Amino acid sequence: MASSSSSSLSRVVVKSSDNNLFVVNKKVASQSQLLKQCIDNMEEKGTNDVILIPLSNVTSNILTLVLEYCEKHADFADDDNNNQELKQWDHEFLKKFDYATLNSLTMAADYMVTKSLLNLCCQFIADSIKDLTVQQIRQIFDIKNDFTPQEEADIKNENAWAFR
Amino acid sequence: MAAWSALPPDLLASIAERLEYRTDIINFRAVCQSWRNSVSLTLVNSTKILSPLLPYKGIINNHASILVASSVFLLQPYSNRMIKPWLVTVEEHNPGKLFIRAPLSRVIAANHMMSYTLDLAHFKQVKLGTFYNLRKLDRIHEMFSEKRLSEYDNKVVLFVNPNCGNSPTIDDCKIVELYNQIDHLSITRLKTGERFRVYFKGREFDDIVNFKGRVYAIDFQGRVCFMDYNSSKMYSITENPLPGCLSSNYKKRLAVLNEELYAIYRRCQISDYEGAFKVFMLKEDEKNWDEINGVGNNNILFVTFDGCFFASVKDFPGWKGNCIVFRRGSFPEYSGIPSFDYKIFEGWHIDRFPGVEGNYIVFRRGSFPAYSGIPSFDCKIFKGWHIDRDVADFPGWEDNCIVFRRGSFPEYSGIPSFDCKIFEGWHIDRDVADFTGWKDNCIVFRRGSFLEYSGIPSFDCKIFEGWHIDRDVA
Fold first, then answer.
1. Residue B305 · residue B292 · CB < 8 Å
2. Contact between B33 and A104 using a beta-carbon 8 Å cutoff
3. Contact B4 A163 (CB under 8 A)
4. Between residues B87 and A109, which one has the greater pLDDT?
5. B351 has a pLDDT exceeding 60
6. In a mutagenesis test of the A interface, which of B27, B78, B161 is the best target, namely the one with the most A β-carbons within 10 Å?
7. A157/B119 Cβ within 8 A
8. B window 293-312, beta carbon within 8 A of A
9. Residue from B1, B12, B15 to probe the interface with A (highest A Cβ count within 10 Å)
């Protein structure tokens, strides 16, 4: 299977934190810098065996989503980020999730160093935050107000228009 | 369980950096400790208030210029719902610093000399519209007067590349300038400062507006064309004139609401059965205009020199929908002669219009007697009216009314006597009790706190009298 001149893997196996195995095409896996690094390291060592990469921080639910994203993006060239179809797909992709999933997905993208997915998540979160009041943000993201009354008073004073 | 407060600081910072407006970043920092600690004050202070990209300084048309954004806000005090909201127009000339404009105008109010802050924690803000102007850096004083008519009769549209994604930079922007009685639009690419002209069939346009990632332009007949961002070429949308508009001496105005484009024109001949204005909606597929019955019972349309915007009637307590509010001069005449408005506004006095500082005249559709074409006739009609207090006190008011302000409008003649007369009767410092319940550090904006356009010093004194800063009412 492997070419004779240099060792090259066509697939890797990724293991989620809940011990499910995912067989991933190398091109797809390379969307994640973490996986790509592992593959490159193994290739340097000249391993021809299929390698297993355990991801202790990512559950299989979330890993499925990350891989779905990687699979889609593997079909497009790196400089194709402005592709309208891909943009549309990205937008629809994130819209499906609740905020808990979005949180895990963002953490997973960060952990797996999937830059474009991370950017996408951060932009999506920023877009959901804008125009909201502080109360609304806390409600949507399920965040407790942990400021002391004194801190809160100081914070309130920050939002001001300065005229001159 | 999602733990949004436990996101790594660098991720939180990366999210906050994508927020374009200062208010959003301030809110971000006010959510919880970890969100707050991940975003520095430096980011807050480097973010602009009204537009992510502006103010922008550059050489435009051989002039050191500054492209500024201005927004119209409705501010409603949280502390006392009985206090009516204020309509405030602000301009961001230096990042993070605002000038107050005279209401719905392009002129910076006199109180620019004072430094103060408005604590937004006490106000619900509704942003109604954002517009753009070019100010010449070496002629900054012109911001404080409307003496130069030629400067006043222009319009600037910020044209952002519709395909540039989420975070456009200044390099993705052009500005489109429209000037009075000139048969082209002037385009400036902000990246290079390159400026060129775009002609379309030799037309002079009445108005331009940014709509669906294009710039739409209307001419005196109501014919519409649009400009494409990349090619800067213009293409016709409809060659059909707006019905009846040729008898109007006033320039047409364009307004955008909910992905629809509207054209409004003001009529000269007003009969019992037809209103002073006609409103049309563009049917782009049919390449035609559709006349509609007003602007909608839930809407108020504001027409200013910089552009039109809609507001929801629910934000204006006591107001009825389907009305048009405009400054004098917002429907310029082709002739450039403003005599008609002058006559209408003469002797008019409406006190305390909620939400808007200044004096207003109210036109009710259908209340116009047959009109002889002589301007003074209207003057007579309205002279008899005297409306005090607010709209809610006037049970006779109906839908489909047209409201426009008077008072701090510029006089083209430059003769200040007219407005001085109006302001004489004002009682600026009344109703302090109205403000009970206000917190510290609030600025109370009032009708009368804006500079008279004529710039008469004696009137300035009155303005400053009218300023009332509530320090410790609570």
1. no
2. no
3. no
4. A109
5. no
6. B27
7. yes
8. none
9. B15
Interface touch A130/B35, C-beta < 8 Å: no
| B390, two tokens | 């607010």
User: Among B1, B5, B12, B14, which would you mutate to test the A interface (most chain A Cβ atoms within 10 Å of its Cβ)?
Assistant: B14
Residues 33-62 of A with CB under 8 A from B: none
Whether B24 sits inside 8 A of A131 (CB atoms) is yes
For chain A, domains (ranges, CATH) are: 11-144 (3.30.710.10)
Residue B192 has pLDDT above 60, yes or no: yes
Residues of B in contact with A141 (CB under 8 A): 2, 4, 31
Mean pLDDT score of chain B: 68
How far apart are alpha carbons B474 and B471 in whole angstroms? Answer: 8
Last residue of a domain, one of B360, B378, B413: B413
Cβ–Cβ contact B98 with A under 8 A: yes
Lowest mean per-residue pLDDT among A25-29, B108-112, B356-360, B442-446: B442-446
Mean predicted confidence (pLDDT) in B80-98:
79
Q: Which of B377, B393, B413 is the last residue of a domain?
A: B413
A157 — contact with chain B (CB < 8 Å)?
Answer: yes
Q: Is residue B210 part of a domain?
A: no
pLDDT per position as a tens digit, A36-62: 888 888 777 776 677 788 888 888 888
Of A122, A129, A147, the CB nearest to B24: A129
Higher-confidence residue: B310 or B398? B310
Within chain A, residue ranges assigned H as helices are 26-29, 33-45, 60-74, 84-95, 99-111, 115-129, 134-141, 149-158
Q: Which two tokens stand for residue B447?
A: 């009708």
**Is B422 part of any domain?**
no
- Among B365, B381, B166, smallest CA distance to B270 is for B365
Q: How far is B208 from chain A (nearest CA, A)?
A: 27
Residue-number span of the structural domain to which B397 is assigned: 248-413
> What's the pLDDT at B86?
76
Considering only alpha carbons, which residue of chain A is nearest residue B92?
Answer: A163
Of B266, B267, B263, nearest to B242 by C-alpha is: B263
**In DSSP terms, which residues pair with B91 in a beta bridge?**
B70, B99
Each residue's pLDDT tens digit, B20-67: 888 899 889 989 989 999 998 888 888 888 888 888 988 887 888 889
Q: Would the CB atoms of A106 and B11 count as touching at under 8 Å?
A: yes
Task: Tell me if chain B has a CB within 8 Å of the CB of A143.
Answer: yes
Domain count for chain B: 2
In a domain, B85, yes or no: no
- Predicted confidence at residue B233, as pLDDT, reads 92
> B145 or A132: whose pLDDT is higher?
A132
**pLDDT value of residue A52:** 82
Tell me the C-alpha distance between B25 and B7, whole Å. 17
Q: Looking at chain B from residue 33 to 62, which residues have their Cβ under 8 Å from any Cβ of chain A?
A: 33, 35-36, 44, 49
Angle formed at CA B301 by CA B296 and CA B307, multiple of 5 degrees: 140
Residue B158 has pLDDT above 90, yes or no: yes
> For B368, how many CA atoms within 13 A lie in the half-sphere containing its CB?
27
Answer yes or no: is B297 within a domain: yes
Statement: residue B194 has pLDDT above 80:
yes
What ipTM was estimated for this complex? 0.86
Mean pLDDT of B2-26: 87
- CA dist list (Å): B226 to B185, B223, B420: 11, 10, 43
